[in-house]
Structures are given as structure tokens and as C-alpha cells.
Design brief:
Blueprint: H1 7-14, E1 19-24, E2 30-35, E3 38-40, E4 43-49, H2 53-60, E5 63-70, E6 73-87, H3 91-103, E7 116-129
Antiparallel strand pairs: 1-2, 1-5, 3-4, 4-7, 5-6, 6-7
Length: 131
């Protein structure tokens, strides 16, 4: 099993590679959503706006799976399973941090009154596949 501190894991997470976060809907089905992912000071996080489905799912069940693929070789991927803790305290700062990583500017789609929430992962499993 890998760890977030492994160099190959950090390479995938520090590059602007898209991720898929999977959460569980109330009916037991799985919802998978493409997200930006960050690794800052050893903390793995994603960000969204309150009111969207997948953050609401995490309020009901904090278990999530995150998959990050290498776009040049999708068979090289990272899977992180665990629980998340959500906070709005630095939500707007965090989406701006992610936006600068992915598109080189502060988040341009922030809506008036929109409240951003950041979910930090507490991994129970970190698996890197390098093929």
C-alpha cells in the first residue's frame, strides 16, 4: 500500500490532473463527479459549493473514494479511500488555490452568495497503480 508522502503519489497529485470523487447517494447508488484535487502541507482536499449533490452526500456519509489518473497513461492512477471532513472556513481561498493550479487564475465562476466547502481526506487506503 502507498502513502500520500510517496514521490509517485505526490507527482500525480501535484500536477493539474483531474480526479473523480465518488460518494453514496441516499438510495445507496454511487455518484461520481469530476473535481480538482489539491495536496497542500500533506492534506489531500477537494472543494465544491454548498447545495450540490455530492457535498450533501458527504454530509450524510463522510466515506468517499478519489481516483486521479495520469492523462498520458490512464493505467497509471491513484485511488484514495477514506473519510472526509468538510469546512467552509477557507472554502473560497481553497477554490482559488485550486483554480490557480488548474487554470492559472482565481476561480472565475464564483457566484454572488455562493458558499464554498473544502473536504479534507483522512485516507484509510492509498493505492498507486503504475503500469
Amino acid at each position: 500500500m502507498s502513502a500520500l508522502t510517496d514521490p509517485d503519489v505526490q507527482t500525480l497529485l501535484n500536477a493539474p490532473n483531474y480526479a473523480v470523487v465518488s460518494t453514496q447517494n441516499g438510495d445507496g447508488s454511487i455518484l461520481s463527479t469530476v473535481v480538482w484535487v489539491g495536496l497542500d502541507e500533506g492534506k489531500l482536499f477537494v472543494n465544491s459549493a454548498l447545495g450540490r449533490r455530492w457535498p450533501a452526500n458527504l454530509d450524510n456519509d463522510p466515506h468517499a473514494t478519489l481516483v486521479v489518473m495520469n492523462p498520458d497513461n490512464p493505467q497509471n492512477f491513484l485511488e484514495v479511500r477514506g473519510t472526509v471532513t468538510g469546512s467552509t472556513e477557507h472554502g473560497t481561498d481553497d477554490i482559488n488555490w485550486l483554480s490557480n493550479k488548474y487554470i492559472g487564475q482565481d476561480y472565475p465562476w464564483l457566484q454572488p452568495g455562493e458558499q464554498r466547502v473544502t473536504f479534507v481526506f483522512e485516507p484509510s487506503r492509498v493505492r498507486l497503480v503504475n503500469q
